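Researcher: Quick one. two chains, 1055 residues in total.
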Amino acid sequence: MSDEIVLSATGLGKQVSSPEGTLTILENINLQVSSGEVVALVGPSGAGKTTLLALLAGLDHPTSGSVELCGSRLEELDEDGRAQVRGRDVGFVFQSFHLVPSLTALENVMLPLELAEADNAAQRAREALESVGLGSRTGHYPRQLSGGEKQRVAIARAFVSNPAVLFADEPTGNLDTASGDRVSELLFNLNKQSGTTLILVTHDKELAARCDRVLELEAGRMLNRS
Amino acid sequence: MKSLRFAIRSLVRDLRAGELTVLLFAMIIAVTSMTAVGFFTDRVGRAMQAQAAETLAADLLIRSPVEIGDTYLQAGAAAGMRTAATAEFPTVAIAPGGRSLSIVTAATEGYPLRGTVLIADKMFGDSYAADGVPEPGTAWAEAGVMARLDVDLGDTIKLGSAEFRLTKVLEFRPDQGMGFMSLAPAIIVNAADVAAMDVIRPGSRVTHKQLFAGTPEQTAAFRAAWQDRLQPEERISSIEDASEQIASAIERAKRFLTLASLVTVILAAVATAMASRRYALRHLDTVALLKSMGASQAFIQQTMLAQLALIVLSTAAIGTALGFAGQTVLAELSARLTPFTLPEPSMQAALLGLVTAATVAIGFALPQLLQLRTTPPLRVLRHDLAPPQLSTGLLYGVAIAALVTMIWSIVQELKLLLYIVGGMAAMSLVAVGAGWVLVRAFTRFRGAGGVAWRYGLANISRRGRESVVQVVAFGLGIMVLLLLTVVRNDVLRDWERSLPENTPNYFLLNIEPGDWDDIARLFQQELGAVPEFLPLIRGRITAINGTSINDYEFPSQQAENFVRREANLTWTPTLADSNKMVAGEWWPEGYEGALQISIEDQFARNMGVGIGDTLEFSVGGEIVTAPIVSTRRIAWDSLQPNFYIVFSPGDVRQLPQTYLSSLYIADEKSAVLRTLLQRYPGITVFDLQVILTQVRSIIDRASMAVQYVFLFTLLAGVVVLLAAVQVTRDERRFESAILHTLGARRSQILKGIAAEFIALGGLAGFLASLGASAIGYLLARFVFDLAFAIDPLLWITGLLSGALIVGITGTLATRKAVNEPPVRVLRNA
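Model:
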């Protein structure tokens, strides 16, 4: 962990309109994350964790406030500009894995490299799969893999492009305890090795406890910092 | 480049995963169908054109009553065209046994440039194609001349000052005409003998013709170069001006094939749209993922465009290759059934394949695929997010524009285009409306049946929009199939009706009114029936509404050409079966009053005249004036004797006239003709058998091609169904897994699915019958000019076939989704 701030949010708010009127999802969120830091976002369902993750990663735009990610002010960028930042600096691990069903494990891991036109995509993807213990399953399709294996492929995909910041949305939420433990172990280990900043949305108190810092959200507000 | 490489890789992966199978299948079928039909119709069209050319004995000819000179022949030869020349003139043939007025054709080597002269080695013997023209000093004469002169092959006849040895019986000249112009039996001699005959003098009645044959481009260029530089007495004609009978049959056959090929393309386009929609839906997550990984909108768009371009190129190539193979099979098949050889296929249809693939892709796949670029990346976290819906107007607008463009490129006739597009638009509107009614109505009947029925109908009502889409797609599919059946049957039925077994195969011309009774007795005795005799008056129109035709402005060249030569006129108390009144009144029964005229409708329009206008004729030096009282439409393809201009009975009887008759004479009774000709040497017998064979072969070929095209249409129908099932497959897999989990038996789920598809198919079939009947009526009534009867069987067929085909195929295609273990489905959800 260094003192360099890679992610910061100032006065971040998100409101949506609904049949009942305007609904506040997030209100006045302020945070700063240093390079290499591992931060857990916790809170009950509906607290706004995933919305905050989406805003921080530039997948959505806030109603108010600003986000600076790896030196780019996201609210000043259009969708393609934010995509460029994500392509360069961001990786994701999702609760529902989001593997492309028509692609093999290897091809799924190759995707971010191919998009970036990186050299040796296949070789690097193969190494990434080996690093998550799936070197022998490169030719398997997602439907041929268990949930834990799918998430490991997704982790390999997230790390293969060496992102500065990795966002993980409930990475063990869809897994049984054993698989979940293995996946979280892998996630933390790889994170440690690569020095990536990790923003982790989770319900899992144990998982949160392993992080450098835990940010708790409730009804769209940040409760405390630890 | 980046997106192209990515597009190729993604495309290969999607292909391997079977994501594109239905889409590719649909587009390949569209291209195969269009190119197979395109290659084949191109060949048939050119074969038919060649047949039409045979009636001219050339692709293009220039005729004149005076000698033409060598300028055109030299120009034609210089342009690489084949040329020949003829002179036709009446003269008296003399032999020791008698004399006979004959039409002599003196032809140069090379005649005829198109078609063949048929000759025989004995009178009414087997005919075969002549190789060249008669040697100088020899002649080929029709049986009529020989009977009148009482000569046989080997005997010598005298034409003018020259003597000729008869070497062959002349059976058929391609340009002998179907307009009853040849009033005397024909003789062919070599052009080199004309001078020795010494019969052509200034003022002689002679028609000089120069014949040209070449490629369509050469012909068009020649015509364009010379038609405005002709001498006033010279006339140019080409295939387009060939006789109405052949032209009418060609036109009908073309429309026939056109309609058939169109059906397949429309069905395939519908399947393409459905498959693309599914492809787009299934790729929402992938696109969101790519965007979360940094892919820009432009990148997604370029990738989609590149993929579609690759799909277009590959389906065009595969489809065209299949289409080429398909038409070869068909051509082989038709070659065995018809006596004509088809020309080699031209590569024009290959372009048609590319155009078809591109049009279907742009109109029916592109909008949905391009919309993927606006997928919000946030979808990776919130699965319920989708790209903003495409405006319905845009989506359908693009599809309709593509469809209309395609139909236009095929039919190139506004009226037919409007009927087809109008029918489909009406059908779609009715189907969409009825679809909604169905969805709403079925919500109420859910409680009426068992659990399967409730489940099935609930599916229809819940997937409201999808259900409507399926009803419209199935409805359209079944409708076009029914439409083709209806129209096809009507056209064939009409032909069977208009060309019955005893369709006239001989025309008799030049019958003197006084010989009637005796000829009638002869036929009664030999054939057991007396044919109808029609008067034939040769006359020339001299003035229209008092204006001399020299000062009259003709709206059409065709009419002017007709008016400037001697025309065949008739009079009759009764309207012929092959004629239909358009306007005005036919003269009442027993009418013998002032002279009146009934005129063919299109001819009247070409002349710029109508009811109330007065025409003046010169008949054998006598001037006759009469008002037009009615207009008629003539079914030229009936092969009955028909006339543009018909007089009412009365004083017209005083005009110089002969009679003609058409009749059917079976082969074994053809000896009666010899008797007839011996008794009445002045009568000309005109053999229609060859022309009938030509026309019948065209119809055979057309109907064979349509049946062949049906295969593609059926295939396309199956693809629509598969596409429709595929669209909902993921959802169905999930649902049946949930139902299984809740304890539903497989059979219960299947029954529910069957109920859903049977209900959808039934409604689609019902709507299809409605649409097919309506469009069939419009096409039959206004385009094909046939009588049309609405067939209740059509409705039953539509309803049942819809319910059965959609019910069975839909259930079978969905079975796999039901069979999948629920745990796998739910785990992957």
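Chain A has one domain: 5-225.
Researcher: Thanks, that's what I needed.
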